[in-house]
Amino acid sequence: xxxxxxxxxxxGYLRYFTAVAIARVPNAMWAVGVALLVLQRTGxxxxxxxxVAAGSLPAAVTGPVLGAWLDITxxxxxxxxxxxxxxxxxxxxVLLLAGHGPHWALPLVxxxxxxxxxxxxxxxxxxxxxxxxxxxWPRANTLEATSINLAYIVGPALAxxxxxxxxxxxxxxxxxxxxxxxxxxxxSAEVFELRPxxxxxxxxxxxxxxxxALWTIVPLRSLSAATLFSVTAWGTLNVxxxxxxxxxxxxxxxxxxxxxxxxxxx
Length: 266
Hints:
This protein has 266 residues and is an all-alpha fold. The protein is 81% helix and 0% strand. The longest helix has 39 residues, at 128-166. It starts with a helix and ends with a helix.
């Protein structure tokens, strides 16, 4: 039997992969769906950019602590459900406030989206080695990368297509529905509780150890620094793509197709 078949028959793997693959699509829709909604209702590209950024920035601060919390908590699924519920709540808030409330309130509400996002992101990735083991890790890692790439093609294209056909509000509503479906899958999948047998139970020790590794391991430090600059450059496209699409007369929703094309090329 091939290693691919063994992987797919690994207990809990298909449940894991389904939940993770679905969860990544609405995450990839965020920058397109929310930006288009704010732009349509307020006409402000700058507000659209600030709102999307507000939903991403907090993770850079909360990530180390939340990642450590995942390592020591008794229930990872509860923390993941908290994160996904926060995402739903934030999107509902943006949906209700955009064009109907004060502009300054939108970025404040959007902060909630990124505040807890490391919980699900970290849990998705960290559970995989324990689930598949060292022999199946290369194959599982390949499928993991594929699911991420596909999400960044499907998510923006889906958001753009829906926004172009029936409006960005519906695109955000679809995003909410996908997150709700993910909550159900995560809460019912025990596989997300898998962790190494040996681990620390001290939050401070875990955070300090992680930050120390980030600084002392040179390749990890270099990669993190390079990623910081790379992500900053990519972030400018959240505003540049809609602006460029509008300048071409294609409609702001075409920014979703631009994102999908870039991801497809990657």
